[in-house]
Amino acid sequence: MRHFILVLFFANLMASGLGQVFPDTDFNTLLRTENGGWVAGDATYSIALPDGRTLWLFGDSFIGTVNSDSSIVPGAHMIRNCAVMQEGEVMTAMYEGTFENPGDFVPTEDSDTWFWPEHGMVENNTLKIIFSEFGPNGDTTGWNFEFRNTFIVLFTYPEIELIGSILLPYYDLNGVMYGDRIMLSGDYTYIYGRKEEVGNIPYAHVARVPASDVLGDWEFYNGTGWSVSAQESIRLSNHPVSQQFGVFKHLEKYLMVTQEIWLGSKIYSLVADAPEGPWNNLTVLYETPRPFPTQLTYNSYPHPQFDDENALLVSYNSNGSFWDIFSNIELYRPNFIRVPYNLIDTAFNPTDIPHYVVDENESLLINGVFPNPANENIVVSITITEPMKLKLQFYDLIGRKVRSLPEVSYSVGKHQITCSINNFPKGIIVARMHDKSVWFIHN
Asked: What is the fold of 20-348?
């Protein structure tokens, strides 16, 4: 009876409101750890590799070291593109040359142009990443560069060694800059891009190709179906997209995450039942803070391989006055937030209701949280019947992670874990270890 009452209690609370966006402190810290030279950059694409690693891709990047006051140590270099390989919590920067004399991760053949990264995927034991080629346009007012071409760059996998590049012909045919997202869904790989129309306002477009053949013959969505003619491609929605946006499948729906154009601060989502749309349910998810006077934010991007407790990891880029960056590198580092999926669409309301479990036949028992209610410190009491490693984590009712304690090895017997809750949100908090949970009230 007690278990049944608690289930109803939590279900009513969960149904009473949507989640809230919050900073992801783990990733904001991870991208600021020593990695072999990369200290800041923009773009912030990520490719989930089949072996569990993630390859992060950045545009203009600083290679160097950072002082404790966030200023760059003299002698740093800027390169046009860089990669960082993530394996667990180990980050390894990837670029040509040396730390003292670095070069682009992927150089162009023309010294007057450069590559900025887009998205990619592994096909047939080859990593294929789209890069956009840019070059100077002679403008002296600030936006002194222009798009030139789109290439697919090939790497060996899993070694990630450069093989070569192949020019894609479609920009000259329809003006779409492809590469914002490459998504495998069903029998097809979908390649999303953007096309600037009147007033240089970009709109989303999509092409597709049979799975495992991204270099094959593309088809283009024309509003009613798929055409072999690139010129028939039309916009997917009347809502503009930023110069970088992401599309992915979550459960049975397709989600698009983009940001307000012209360096606006609003991050949006749209929802569809098919990769091509129609795209509906436009929602403002977040408005990026700008704590520094010259700061700008732009080009948010989703990273669904890091889903955690019904929340999506989203990055957004930051920039500011070029010379201010040297005294405050935080102006040019990406920021990460968690977006509860039920903010994007109420169909994603959490179904994993926290539960209070006492089963004497299991190897882990959570005896309770004391005191309850609590306002400063709590003690979580557990009983272990066989040695194991456990991590104590705390969540609010919509699945937002409040705090995670380091993993600890426990011996057989009873243990008491003391934790400060001074910085926890008020209300009901769920303490979880492995698959066991218990709740308490933070006054």
From this structure: Tachylectin-2; Chain A (2.115.10)
Residue 313 has pLDDT above 60, yes or no: yes
Residue 44 has pLDDT above 70, yes or no: yes
371 prior amide bond cis, ω within 30: yes
Query: In the chain, what is the straight-line distance between the N-terminal and C-terminal CA atoms, in Å?
Result: 26
The pairing of strands 266-272 and 280-287 is: antiparallel
CATH for the 354-442 domain, from 2.40.37.10, 3.40.50.2000, 3.30.70.100, 2.60.40.2550? 2.60.40.2550
Domain boundaries, the chain: 20-348, 354-442
Report pLDDT digits (tens) over 193-221: 999 999 999 999 999 999 999 999 999 99
H-type helices in 230-380, by residue range?
Answer: 322-327, 341-344
How many CB atoms lie under 10 A from the CB of residue 96?
14
Tokens read off for 149: 């071409």
Strands (E), 42-160: 45-48, 54-58, 61-63, 77-79, 82-87, 90-94, 96-97, 102-103, 114-123, 126-136, 145-156
Provide CB contacts within 8 A for 38, sequence distance 6+: 58, 61, 62, 63, 82, 84, 93, 95
DSSP strands (E only) in 320-362 = 335-340
pLDDT at 350 over 80: no
DSSP state of 237: -
Q: What is the pLDDT of residues 365-383, one digit of tens each?
A: 888 898 988 888 999 999 9
* Per-state percent for the chain, helix, strand, coil, to nearest 5: 10, 50, 40
